[in-house]
Amino acid sequence: MVKFLMLLGNYEETALRSVSEYHCDPGYLLYGNYCYHLESEDVKSWQDAEDHCSRQQGHLASIHSQEELSFLTGEKRSRPTSGRAWVGLNDIKSENQFVYTDGTPADFLPWALGQPDNWQDNEDCVHLRGHNHAQPGLFNDDFCTSTREFICKKGGIFSQSCAPRWIQ
Ligand SMILES: [Ca+2]
Ligand SMILES: [Ca+2]
To answer: What is the pTM for the complete model shown?
Structure first.
């Protein structure tokens, strides 16, 4: 019992001594362990948007859960623009085989009704529908050359710092 209490004491001391957290570069929002930039002032083609994100050590966003999607659509709704935004999902390489530019699995695909329709045999890049659309926040395949708002995503910056009154 004494030993157990000593171990507990050590554990609490360690927990108190350091504060670990993720944070983001300016212009990025933290959600979970990831950072997101919702670009609404500048519009780009899908490839230009991906290049822009990769210059900032990220990719166009991958989305893996309803919670993550709700976070992004909620943030978009709070902004003055309501435009469609590119994400990293695409079937450029092989028709109807959708992949993400960040290499994560396409495991959550909230397509809008009737999508993907590969309209004019030429829609290979995916955007989130704007919140002025009847089906906001759902996926639609689109012409990659269309210029749209976009969302970049990258890993959060992990930092460990000392709790108050502790020295590293
Ligand atoms: Ca396609
Ligand atoms: Ca479409």
So the answer is: 0.84
